[in-house]
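Journal club prep, shared notes

We agreed each person brings one worked example of a sequence with its structure written out as tokens. Mine is mRNA-degrading endonuclease. I'm keeping it raw so we can talk through how to read the token line rather than staring at a rendered picture. Sequence first:
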Amino acid sequence: MVKEGSPRYVPNRGDIIWIQFSQRRGHEQGGRRPAIILSSKQFSERTSFIFCCPITSKVKGYVFEVPIAAGRIRGAVLADQAYTFDWQARRPTYAARAPEAVVSKVGELISILAQGA
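Then the structure, token by token:
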């Protein structure tokens, strides 16, 4: 796998990246922060987009938080704050690989949200 700083790196499902979250409003996450990729590498290659959720270091025990510890990243994935970004324009850097159990749990919570629960 090609890592940070390489123009050949393509984000893949389960990767944790550092990316710029901009134009923050209200309680949204902002600034450069880690995020977990939920879309596939094929989606990233074909569209230049990624579907991801931010990771916060301030764990509050909220129902849509998923605890995560991967590499130097510690905190909680915010499953209710999913974003789609043009990764080629934002130039993310690879940080770590998320445990599959975390990726699955985040996906489950997003499915619950999408069903109107």
